[in-house]
Write the structure tokens for this entry.
Amino acid sequence: MDAKVAQSLQLSCIWINPENIRTKPKDSLTFSRRLKEHQQVQVFASTNLRCSRNKNRHRLLPLTVSCSLNNFPASTLESESSPASDDEALILKSKSQEIEPLLNGRCIYLVGMMGSGKTTIGKILSEVLDYSFFDSDKLVEQAVQGTSVAEIFKLHGETFFRQRETDALKELSLMHRLVVSTGGGAVVRPINWKYMNKGISVWLDVPLEALAQRIAAVGTHSRPLLHHEPGDAYTKALKRLSTLFEQRSDAYENANARVSLENIAAKLGHNDVLSLTPNIIAIEALEQIETFLEEESA
């Protein structure tokens, strides 16, 4: 077949069992352990017929493989490459489409300590669920003429900030199909739970040592409750986080679902929770939300 005539060739759909895949040094496919938990993977193979030849005058055709799971959109893998993130994206999409109808438009509120990844995970969840994303801190900043949270604390104090935070959560509670990243201290005011309980609250539970490492890496200047602590960045972050967590831990327990990074790492055999990808954490969040919904409807 002339490459100028046929631009691409679509091979017929085949079903393969991941357990039959054998890795090779080159031109091979690998599947993560999570994807192997599914019984079969639907694989479509296609190639662009570019006319190139090796020294033996044989045609060389670059191969591209796309995988789809349970009829969800395919992700493309080129030969010699099979990133784990593609597997995670498939599972994430599958899980989101399972629970989205069960949510009935209810909002999701992410709670947790500063630096726990509420904004990052929130944006992922909003995208896969086709929800809108809001950061309550950003809404407070907008309400105070764009003043940063750090400046609000400095100029007006924490009480002023907490009231504006409550105002923002009240407004958000009147809406539907939102993922909301809340401030680390939002859980301490009972009235905030009145608003968040109209939706589903999810606690991102991250070990304090990991939080301190993450915050120290980017600095404490934007963290008004940490910036004035003495010592190096990690030490003062860990010291202050420990105090704050002691004050808030009972309040975090009020969340409808808990996503423990320690538990995820243990299940996957990771020694460091900071090595967990945002997609993996988002998958666990969806699974915990699903568990809550099942228990709620039982």
User: Anything to note?
Assistant: The longest strand covers residues 41-48. Confidence is low (pLDDT under 50) at residues 1-82. The beta strands are 8-10, 14-16, 41-48, 63-68, 75-78, 108-111, 132-135, 178-181, 200-205, 257-260.
